[in-house]
Each structure stands twice: as structure tokens, then as C-alpha cells.
Amino acid sequence: MWLAEYPQPRPPRETWESNPLYRQLDAQFTQHHAENPGYTGLHFMAAYELEECWQLLRQSLHSVSYEALAHVPSYADWLSRQDWTPSYCRHRRNLQLIGLNDAEKRWVLKNPSHLFALDALMATYLDALVVQTHRPVETIMASMCSLAQHTTEGWSTKFVGAQIGADAMDTWSRGLERFNAARAKYDSAQFYDVDYHDLIADPLGTVADIYRHFGLTLSDEARQAMTTVHAESQSGARAPKHSYSLADYGLTVEMVKERFAGL
């Protein structure tokens, strides 16, 4: 997380605690978690932890995180008309900087903003392999709305309740529509579809299937590391504790299914 916030060549892990930038972000998370004790069950974050790559796209102000966390229709309209390619070029330069000492390793990226800019992503990362996870859309919308609510609580009197629901419907239906249209143009061998329930039921087996599909080697070391991380995620601060309801955001299952029909 801290290297995306303060990009620099990744230093040895044992030196992080002495780095003033790492310590600054770590202190911020410590304060946040103390003030919001239930948040870690929604989306666990820590300075040392892996995180989505949205910070790198925010450098160019091209990030769905802004409209996902505030009612900013003029920004959403502006972003929908932008070419994201320059932002992804900057994104790549950041990864080259962070991974300067590990140039032989392959990056694994995760970020909902990629839905909106597949063409830019594929133009920048020619050998990209894309994993798309599928989950009932009514569950996704309820979860996204809840995360937005808890993340922004106290920030705004406008971005609450039904407004969060309406904005989320606009944002994510647009993103999925764009992704599906763009995906059809590329070699299907670069994509792999995963059912969310399969991932939850057998995460390690699902990862092995992904590696197998793309012809990648899953080393024993990587498999063991994944096993350890998965075990750690089942208890303590990292354990998922997230409940949500569409009704809290002025939505119903029927409304969501109708909006996303055919996507």
C-alpha cells in the first residue's frame, strides 16, 4: 500500500519500519482503525499490505474512486469522455519504478477502474492476462454501496442513502457495458472467467486453474505463501465482517437486475 502512495524502488522488507513515509502512512491507518473499529472487516488496509492500484491512476485524475465516493456528476461525465491511455502509461512507469529491483517478476493488478479502460490497459500492457470475476449483480451493488457509505461517513450530507445507490447504478452499469464491448475485440486466450462462489469455496484451487489456463507455473513457494495468507485472512482484523442491504440505498433486486440486464 505505501509504495503505491509514495512510489519508489521497493526497498528490502526489513527496512520498511524505519522509512519515514512508511511510518507516516502506518500511523494514519492506526488512527483510522482506532476511530473506525468495524472498517477492517469491510476492507482491510495497512501500510504493509497489498492494495488495489487505484492510487497510481489517481495521479492523472483518472480514477473511478472519485465518483464511487462522492456525488460528482460533472466529474463522472468528464471521465466518461476521456482517453485513459496517458494515465496507464504513467501507471506503467510507476510500476517500473516500484519494481526496479524485481524486474523479472510479473505484476498482479486489481482495480475496478480497469472496467472503464480496457483498451488503454491492453494498449499499455500488450501481454496482459485478464481475470474477470462474476458475482450476482444485486450482491455487488449492495456491497459497493455499503463500502461507499462506510468509507465516506460524515463527509457529505448529499452522498448518502438513495444517492449512493443511484450513483452506483450509473457508475458500475456504465463500466460493465464498456468493458464487455471492449473485451469482444481481443483474443479470448488473454481472458479467464471466474465464478465468485468458486473462488470463495476453493480459493487456492481457483488460482491454480487460472495459472493452468494461462500456461503459467505455480511454484511451491507461491502456493505456500497463498495458503498462509488465506489462513491469516480468516481470523482477526482481516476476517471479513460485512453485511449490507439494497434497501438502505433505495434499491431493489428487481431494479438492479433490470439495469444490468444483458451485461
TrEMBL record:
Signal peptide region: none
Keyword list, A-Z: Transferase
Cross-referenced Pfam families: Sulfotransfer_3
GO molecular function terms attached to this record: transferase activity
InterPro entries hit by this protein: P-loop_NTPase (IPR027417), Stf3_sulfotransferase (IPR052736)
Listed name of the protein: Sulfotransferase family protein
Organism: Mycobacterium tuberculosis
